[in-house]
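S.,

Sequence below, as promised.
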Amino acid sequence: MSLEQRPETQTPRAVSAAVTIGSFVALLYVIEFVDMLMANRLDQQGIEPRETGGLLGIVFAPLLHGGWGHLIANTFPALVLGFLILLSGLRTWAGVSAVVWIIGGVGIWLTGGDNSVHIGASGLIFGWLTYLIVRGIFSRKVGQILLGVVILVMYGGLLWGVLPGQEGISWQGHLFGAVGGVIAAWLLVDRDSERR
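The prediction came back faster than expected:
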């Protein structure tokens, strides 16, 4: 968002951002409800590392969750971080999400444990988090740098999740999602201010 924009153009963008991320999260709840009705059979459509059939899980894994507790834990960070990226526009959010989705999924597929299935939006959330933290470095925009610092202070503790530790938590998803967010910032950030 440039400083030249008038306040009346910012309000509709905020409303649009809230509706979009709210709809995305609502979709996750609908999918989890359907999964519950199917006795959690959808959860088997996640990423199975180094299995050819597990490659398709890259498409589905961020939409699936291992129960309501898993989804609820991802809800608030998804709403906040997704909303902040959507303030830059739907195209930016879609681009960042696509880069994180693919890099995170491929990273899990290559490095995840044998005989495991990886699901959940947390890799996407880690990617959104690192994107917001580092994009100001690439754009050289003071506002984005300051927002990155605030987000680092508020959510930086989550980044410990990229390390192996807790059983049943896909640290690979967190790690490669975070890597995807940095790469998305490098690839997609608006560098128009540098050219001006």
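DSSP finds eight helices and no strands in the chain.

Coffee later?
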